[in-house]
Amino acid sequence: MKRFYFLLPVLFAVLILSCKSFDESPKALVNVLLIDAPATWDSVIVEIQGVELDFVPDGRDGTVEKIFLPYEPGDKEVDVSQLVGGVALPVARSEIQMGKITGITLRLGTENALFLDEDRYPLSLPGGNADYSLPLSVDLEQGISYDLILDFDLEKSIQVVNASPLELDFNPTLSAFSGVGRGDISGTTSPTSLKPVIYAIQAGDSTSTHTNSSGGFLFRLEPGTYTLYLDPKNTSYADTVLNVEVKSGSTTTLERITFARK
Protein backbone atom coordinates (compact mmCIF):
# COMPACT_ATOMS: atom_id res chain seq x y z
CA MET A 1 0.00 0.00 0.00
CA LYS A 2 2.78 2.46 0.82
CA ARG A 3 4.29 1.92 -2.64
CA PHE A 4 0.92 2.64 -4.24
CA TYR A 5 0.52 5.99 -2.51
CA PHE A 6 4.11 6.93 -3.33
CA LEU A 7 3.42 6.45 -7.04
CA LEU A 8 0.25 8.57 -7.11
CA PRO A 9 2.06 11.97 -7.06
CA VAL A 10 4.44 10.74 -9.75
CA LEU A 11 1.60 9.62 -12.03
CA PHE A 12 -0.23 12.90 -11.47
CA ALA A 13 2.89 14.86 -12.45
CA VAL A 14 3.28 12.78 -15.62
CA LEU A 15 -0.32 13.48 -16.60
CA ILE A 16 0.14 17.22 -16.10
CA LEU A 17 3.29 17.25 -18.23
CA SER A 18 1.53 15.21 -20.95
CA CYS A 19 -1.34 17.68 -21.08
CA LYS A 20 1.10 20.57 -21.40
CA SER A 21 2.89 18.83 -24.25
CA PHE A 22 -0.24 18.83 -26.47
CA ASP A 23 0.20 20.97 -29.57
CA GLU A 24 -2.03 23.99 -28.95
CA SER A 25 -0.68 26.05 -31.85
CA PRO A 26 -3.30 27.65 -34.16
CA LYS A 27 -4.33 25.44 -37.07
CA ALA A 28 -6.47 25.33 -40.20
CA LEU A 29 -8.45 22.35 -41.50
CA VAL A 30 -7.41 21.12 -44.96
CA ASN A 31 -9.66 18.84 -47.03
CA VAL A 32 -8.31 17.33 -50.26
CA LEU A 33 -11.00 16.34 -52.78
CA LEU A 34 -10.81 14.57 -56.15
CA ILE A 35 -13.35 15.56 -58.79
CA ASP A 36 -14.40 15.08 -62.40
CA ALA A 37 -14.02 12.35 -64.99
CA PRO A 38 -15.49 11.64 -68.42
CA ALA A 39 -18.32 9.25 -69.25
CA THR A 40 -16.61 8.10 -72.46
CA TRP A 41 -15.58 4.81 -70.84
CA ASP A 42 -17.62 2.37 -68.77
CA SER A 43 -15.28 2.89 -65.82
CA VAL A 44 -11.74 4.00 -65.12
CA ILE A 45 -10.09 2.63 -61.98
CA VAL A 46 -7.19 4.56 -60.46
CA GLU A 47 -5.21 3.45 -57.41
CA ILE A 48 -4.73 6.37 -55.02
CA GLN A 49 -2.06 6.23 -52.32
CA GLY A 50 -2.47 9.76 -51.00
CA VAL A 51 -1.27 13.32 -51.44
CA GLU A 52 1.84 15.23 -50.39
CA LEU A 53 1.69 18.94 -49.60
CA ASP A 54 4.56 21.40 -50.00
CA PHE A 55 4.24 23.61 -46.91
CA VAL A 56 6.12 26.68 -45.68
CA PRO A 57 5.46 27.32 -41.95
CA ASP A 58 4.86 30.89 -40.77
CA GLY A 59 8.09 32.71 -40.05
CA ARG A 60 10.24 30.19 -41.89
CA ASP A 61 10.41 31.55 -45.43
CA GLY A 62 12.43 29.34 -47.75
CA THR A 63 11.87 26.23 -45.63
CA VAL A 64 9.60 23.82 -47.48
CA GLU A 65 8.24 20.89 -45.49
CA LYS A 66 6.71 17.79 -47.09
CA ILE A 67 3.46 16.64 -45.46
CA PHE A 68 2.15 13.28 -46.70
CA LEU A 69 -1.56 12.60 -46.17
CA PRO A 70 -2.45 8.97 -46.98
CA TYR A 71 -5.69 7.89 -48.60
CA GLU A 72 -6.95 5.90 -45.62
CA PRO A 73 -9.45 3.32 -47.03
CA GLY A 74 -8.06 -0.20 -47.38
CA ASP A 75 -9.37 -0.42 -50.93
CA LYS A 76 -7.39 2.27 -52.71
CA GLU A 77 -8.76 1.52 -56.20
CA VAL A 78 -11.26 4.25 -57.07
CA ASP A 79 -13.69 4.43 -59.99
CA VAL A 80 -13.00 8.04 -60.89
CA SER A 81 -15.41 7.90 -63.83
CA GLN A 82 -18.23 8.32 -61.27
CA LEU A 83 -16.97 11.73 -60.11
CA VAL A 84 -19.31 13.90 -62.19
CA GLY A 85 -22.22 16.24 -61.50
CA GLY A 86 -20.72 17.64 -58.30
CA VAL A 87 -19.67 14.28 -56.79
CA ALA A 88 -16.26 14.54 -55.07
CA LEU A 89 -14.04 11.92 -53.46
CA PRO A 90 -12.53 12.89 -50.07
CA VAL A 91 -8.87 11.88 -50.42
CA ALA A 92 -7.41 13.27 -47.19
CA ARG A 93 -8.18 15.56 -44.27
CA SER A 94 -5.86 17.07 -41.68
CA GLU A 95 -5.29 20.02 -39.37
CA ILE A 96 -2.20 21.98 -40.39
CA GLN A 97 -0.37 24.80 -38.64
CA MET A 98 -0.35 28.33 -39.96
CA GLY A 99 1.71 28.86 -43.10
CA LYS A 100 1.42 28.56 -46.86
CA ILE A 101 0.76 25.56 -49.09
CA THR A 102 2.85 26.02 -52.23
CA GLY A 103 2.23 22.73 -54.05
CA ILE A 104 0.44 19.39 -54.00
CA THR A 105 1.40 15.95 -55.34
CA LEU A 106 -1.06 13.15 -56.07
CA ARG A 107 0.59 9.78 -55.50
CA LEU A 108 -0.84 6.90 -57.54
CA GLY A 109 -0.33 3.15 -57.37
CA THR A 110 0.15 0.63 -60.18
CA GLU A 111 -3.35 -0.90 -60.25
CA ASN A 112 -4.89 1.38 -62.86
CA ALA A 113 -7.27 0.09 -65.51
CA LEU A 114 -10.04 0.95 -67.93
CA PHE A 115 -13.12 -1.24 -68.39
CA LEU A 116 -15.06 -1.34 -71.65
CA ASP A 117 -17.78 -3.89 -72.46
CA GLU A 118 -16.63 -5.93 -69.44
CA ASP A 119 -13.08 -6.14 -70.82
CA ARG A 120 -10.21 -4.85 -68.69
CA TYR A 121 -7.41 -2.78 -70.22
CA PRO A 122 -4.45 -2.01 -67.92
CA LEU A 123 -3.27 1.60 -67.78
CA SER A 124 0.48 1.81 -67.27
CA LEU A 125 1.93 4.98 -65.81
CA PRO A 126 4.44 6.59 -68.20
CA GLY A 127 7.96 5.75 -67.11
CA GLY A 128 6.58 4.21 -63.95
CA ASN A 129 6.06 7.71 -62.56
CA ALA A 130 3.61 7.57 -59.64
CA ASP A 131 3.85 11.19 -58.43
CA TYR A 132 2.04 14.05 -60.18
CA SER A 133 2.97 17.44 -58.76
CA LEU A 134 1.07 20.69 -59.24
CA PRO A 135 1.64 24.25 -58.08
CA LEU A 136 -0.76 25.68 -55.51
CA SER A 137 -0.84 28.86 -53.45
CA VAL A 138 -2.98 28.82 -50.31
CA ASP A 139 -2.31 30.96 -47.22
CA LEU A 140 -3.74 29.17 -44.19
CA GLU A 141 -5.56 31.16 -41.51
CA GLN A 142 -6.55 29.94 -38.06
CA GLY A 143 -9.92 28.24 -37.75
CA ILE A 144 -10.67 28.25 -41.49
CA SER A 145 -11.57 25.09 -43.46
CA TYR A 146 -9.97 24.87 -46.91
CA ASP A 147 -10.99 22.60 -49.78
CA LEU A 148 -8.08 21.72 -52.05
CA ILE A 149 -9.50 20.38 -55.32
CA LEU A 150 -7.70 17.93 -57.60
CA ASP A 151 -9.35 17.77 -61.03
CA PHE A 152 -8.39 14.50 -62.77
CA ASP A 153 -9.08 15.18 -66.45
CA LEU A 154 -9.48 11.71 -67.97
CA GLU A 155 -10.54 13.23 -71.28
CA LYS A 156 -6.94 14.41 -71.70
CA SER A 157 -5.30 11.63 -69.66
CA ILE A 158 -6.39 8.69 -71.83
CA GLN A 159 -5.73 8.64 -75.55
CA VAL A 160 -6.60 5.88 -78.03
CA VAL A 161 -3.43 4.78 -79.81
CA ASN A 162 -5.07 1.99 -81.81
CA ALA A 163 -8.79 1.25 -82.16
CA SER A 164 -8.60 -2.47 -83.07
CA PRO A 165 -7.29 -4.05 -81.01
CA LEU A 166 -7.77 -1.27 -78.46
CA GLU A 167 -4.49 0.27 -77.29
CA LEU A 168 -4.41 3.16 -74.85
CA ASP A 169 -1.89 5.75 -73.74
CA PHE A 170 -2.26 6.83 -70.10
CA ASN A 171 -0.66 10.11 -69.05
CA PRO A 172 -2.45 11.50 -65.96
CA THR A 173 -3.40 15.13 -66.52
CA LEU A 174 -4.56 17.09 -63.48
CA SER A 175 -5.12 20.59 -62.20
CA ALA A 176 -5.24 21.78 -58.60
CA PHE A 177 -6.95 24.76 -57.00
CA SER A 178 -8.47 26.01 -53.78
CA GLY A 179 -12.24 26.24 -53.52
CA VAL A 180 -11.93 29.63 -51.80
CA GLY A 181 -13.30 32.48 -53.92
CA ARG A 182 -14.61 30.26 -56.70
CA GLY A 183 -18.14 29.97 -58.04
CA ASP A 184 -20.15 27.14 -59.56
CA ILE A 185 -22.03 26.55 -62.79
CA SER A 186 -24.72 23.90 -62.39
CA GLY A 187 -26.89 22.53 -65.17
CA THR A 188 -28.80 19.61 -66.63
CA THR A 189 -28.94 18.35 -70.22
CA SER A 190 -31.40 16.21 -72.12
CA PRO A 191 -31.89 13.69 -73.54
CA THR A 192 -30.19 12.01 -70.58
CA SER A 193 -29.23 9.07 -72.82
CA LEU A 194 -26.57 11.26 -74.42
CA LYS A 195 -23.10 11.44 -72.89
CA PRO A 196 -22.04 14.97 -73.85
CA VAL A 197 -18.71 16.56 -73.08
CA ILE A 198 -18.98 20.13 -71.81
CA TYR A 199 -16.19 22.70 -72.05
CA ALA A 200 -15.92 25.92 -70.06
CA ILE A 201 -13.74 28.24 -72.17
CA GLN A 202 -12.12 31.52 -71.17
CA ALA A 203 -9.25 33.42 -72.83
CA GLY A 204 -8.30 30.44 -74.99
CA ASP A 205 -8.07 28.04 -72.03
CA SER A 206 -10.64 25.37 -71.26
CA THR A 207 -11.69 22.79 -68.71
CA SER A 208 -14.12 19.97 -69.38
CA THR A 209 -16.62 17.76 -67.62
CA HIS A 210 -19.36 15.26 -68.44
CA THR A 211 -22.88 14.65 -67.20
CA ASN A 212 -24.00 12.04 -64.70
CA SER A 213 -26.74 9.48 -65.36
CA SER A 214 -29.39 12.17 -64.76
CA GLY A 215 -27.83 14.59 -67.22
CA GLY A 216 -26.45 16.85 -64.48
CA PHE A 217 -23.09 18.61 -64.55
CA LEU A 218 -21.15 21.08 -62.41
CA PHE A 219 -18.12 23.35 -62.85
CA ARG A 220 -16.23 25.12 -60.04
CA LEU A 221 -14.43 28.09 -61.62
CA GLU A 222 -12.73 31.42 -60.99
CA PRO A 223 -15.12 34.38 -61.29
CA GLY A 224 -15.59 35.69 -64.81
CA THR A 225 -17.48 35.12 -68.04
CA TYR A 226 -17.18 31.73 -69.73
CA THR A 227 -18.31 30.22 -73.00
CA LEU A 228 -19.90 26.81 -72.46
CA TYR A 229 -19.55 24.53 -75.46
CA LEU A 230 -21.67 21.37 -75.21
CA ASP A 231 -20.77 18.55 -77.58
CA PRO A 232 -23.49 15.82 -77.59
CA LYS A 233 -21.06 13.29 -79.13
CA ASN A 234 -23.92 12.14 -81.32
CA THR A 235 -24.16 13.19 -84.95
CA SER A 236 -27.98 13.29 -84.77
CA TYR A 237 -27.84 16.29 -82.39
CA ALA A 238 -26.47 19.79 -82.77
CA ASP A 239 -23.81 21.38 -80.55
CA THR A 240 -24.92 24.05 -78.08
CA VAL A 241 -23.03 27.22 -77.04
CA LEU A 242 -23.84 29.45 -74.06
CA ASN A 243 -22.22 32.43 -72.34
CA VAL A 244 -22.31 32.21 -68.54
CA GLU A 245 -21.07 34.53 -65.79
CA VAL A 246 -19.51 32.99 -62.67
CA LYS A 247 -19.65 34.94 -59.39
CA SER A 248 -17.45 34.29 -56.37
CA GLY A 249 -19.11 32.19 -53.67
CA SER A 250 -22.34 31.60 -55.58
CA THR A 251 -23.87 29.02 -57.92
CA THR A 252 -25.20 29.93 -61.35
CA THR A 253 -27.96 27.41 -62.09
CA LEU A 254 -28.83 27.10 -65.76
CA GLU A 255 -32.20 26.19 -67.21
CA ARG A 256 -32.38 22.67 -68.64
CA ILE A 257 -30.37 22.45 -71.87
CA THR A 258 -32.10 20.35 -74.52
CA PHE A 259 -30.01 19.29 -77.49
CA ALA A 260 -31.79 19.98 -80.78
CA ARG A 261 -31.95 17.33 -83.47
CA LYS A 262 -30.28 18.19 -86.74
UniProtKB/TrEMBL annotation:
Q: Which Pfam families match?
A: DUF4382
Positions of the DUF4382 domain: 28-160
What the entry lists under InterPro entries is as follows: Carb-bd-like_fold, DUF4382
Q: Which residues form a coiled coil?
A: none
What is the protein name stated in its UniProt record? DUF4382 domain-containing protein
Task: Please name the source species.
Answer: Algoriphagus aestuariicola
